[in-house]
Amino acid sequence: MAGNANRIYNFSAGPSMLPLEALETAASEMTDYNGSGQSVMEMSHRSKVYLEIFEETKAALRAALAVPDTHEILFMQGGATFQFSAVPLNLLEGGTADYAVTGNFAGIAAEEAGKYGGVHVAASSADRNHTYIPAAAELKPSPDAKYFYYCSNNTIYGTEWKYTPETASPLVCDMSSNILSKPVDVSKYGLIFAGVQKNMGPAGMAVVIIDKTLAGRELPYTPKVMSYKVAIEKDSMDNTPPCYTIYMLGLTLKWLAKRGGVPAMEKLKTERAALLYDYLEESKLFHAVADRSSRSDMNVTFRTDGAETDKAFVKAAENAGFANLAGHRLVGGMRASVYNAMPVEGVQKLVAFMKQYEAAEPC
Ligand SMILES: Cc1ncc(COP(=O)(O)O)c(C=O)c1O
Asked: Domain 261-360: which CATH class?
């Protein structure tokens, strides 16, 4: 791989590959950021030098996703799982919300919301082990829902929503595993959140993009650290923010902008996914798991006809420099997570390896 011969092709679902350029810039600035004589890790979050990084990162994210002025961008600790609680605590108001349960994480989010109010399962793909996304006509939103929740890309099952649900209530979306991979009309959403450890930076933080009119509805016992209203008022700095993670996000966004932004990422992800799915269509050894109409361009799930054969392939691939191809423990098989930072060349090489492996394997 360019720049560093020791880098592996890492197909992990997250934390996952970050742009080499971002890592190298971070390394070169590790002990002395921009002549400041200090590491970004050592800076006061209130200092001028850090606030510049913070503002630049926020502005870069706003530009990358064309976030309108009606929406605020928040950086919140606790990863995406924190948002499974923060969303109902802030938006449920003791009422009922619609949840589309199309995978493990949407299921966990729905369960969490049930602690604070009513949950109406407006769609589910559990009948076929989450191998598909229900069609728009199959969604059953409830009339008085406080919001409609879905997860746009199911990291474990390898399925992705190809449409944006049209709902009367505000749309809330977990975009952890496909944010910044394609353009999104943010104005359609009440709230978007995403754990950063796939397409954006190191783990432990979520980006939240919220329609400002939704803030201030939290239940009285909502922890202050989870309040969107407080986070907006304090510009994500009611307590010390994850300063270094925000800096890394900024470096990733610089890399992304240099490469042509989100539209360029969309082209690349289509190319990467097509390489894998086209081969899976023709292969006699490997089969794609998800329905064709619902296949994720970020997490490509596939398997052979047996768990032992799967294991043998994962091991051989690991030995050949293709890391973390084992599927999630809930589903087994294989999963190639091909986020923005995965070079197309990495996927070309993986497909070449799979072809070679298949040719040597008596089917
Ligand atoms: C779609 C999705 N939502 C939520 C999560 C949970 O994220 P975190 O571990 O940051 O809480 C994940 C983790 O991989 C995910 O893929």
From this structure: alpha beta
